[in-house]
Specification:
21% of the residues lie in helices and 36% in strands. With 206 residues, it is of the alpha+beta class. Strands 3, 4, 5, 6, 7, 8, 9, 10 and 11 form a 9-stranded antiparallel beta sheet that branches. Strands 1-2 form a two-stranded antiparallel ribbon. A hairpin with a 4-residue loop joins β10 and β11. It is elongated and about 65 Å long. The two termini are 24 Å apart. It binds flavin mononucleotide.
Length: 206
């Protein structure tokens, strides 16, 4: 292989296609491992002139389909925003490896379907509590509160009683259109762009 067309990281040479695979490996590991720096990306949406960002938990990464999943309450602002404008961006940064991924794509919203039903069965009781507040997320209140009733907050609240949360449980699937990869390096940064719309991968000036 011609090494001038590769990037040299930790004694390994990566071609553009090696790097693309590496991005997806990192995303798959990010979804699996709660301690991975790629476990909690920042996700941005836009409604009219207003941009909003928030941290979410990456739940799944599907390299073959080029998609990413996170869970959310269908009453949340982000869900309402994505219904109107499905454009979405997710930002990942691994500080120890100095690798940033900026992902852009379109969101598909899953609710009350096989995908949400299967994922719901795997959720823990504490995750389910996020979907059980009688008031919608982002509602203003007079007092600082989780929004959960005392009964739901109790330790002996049962998994059976939590089933009703499924009504509020949604999955956002990000169909990835591009990955902007950036590696910070003291001897010169490197950048690459994986474009799934045009179907081409290119190096970029950082
Ligand atoms: C570490 C961390 C993980 C989070 N994970 C999620 C998540 O997976 N889904 C979610 O809807 N909100 C998650 N949140 C809360 C969001 O960042 C945000 O505050 C909330 O969803 C309201 O966002 P919205 O008003 O834009 O809908 C997380 C927050 C933190 C700090």
């Amino acid at each position: 292989m011609d090494n001038t067309t590769c990037v040299h990281i930790n004694d390994k040479y990566f071609s553009l296609s090696d790097l693309e695979m590496d991005c997806w490996d990192r995303l798959v590991q990010g979804a699996k491992k709660s301690r991975s720096p790629f476990h909690t990306p920042c996700v941005a949406t836009q409604l009219k002139e207003e941009v909003s960002m928030r941290t979410v938990v990456l739940r799944n990464a599907f390299p073959a389909e080029k998609s990413l999943h996170f869970h959310t309450d269908i009453r949340s602002m982000k869900w309402q925003e994505l219904r109107v404008n499905p454009s979405i961006s997710a930002l990942f940064y691994d500080a120890s490896e100095r690798i940033q991924l900026r992902i852009k794509g379109t969101a598909e919203l899953h609710h009350s379907n096989q995908i949400t039903n299967e994922a719901w069965q795997k959720t823990t009781l504490s995750s389910r509590r996020c979907y059980l507040s009688p008031s919608s997320p982002s509602s203003f209140t007079d007092l600082p509160t989780s929004g959960l009733t005392e009964q739901i907050e109790q330790e002996n609240f049962s998994i059976e009683a939590s089933e009703v949360g499924l009504l509020n449980f949604g999955i956002v699937s990000i169909h990835v259109q591009s990955i902007d990869w950036l590696w910070l390096n003291h001897a010169g940064h490197r950048r690459a762009f994986f474009d799934y719309v045009q179907g081409e991968n290119q190096w970029m000036i950082p």
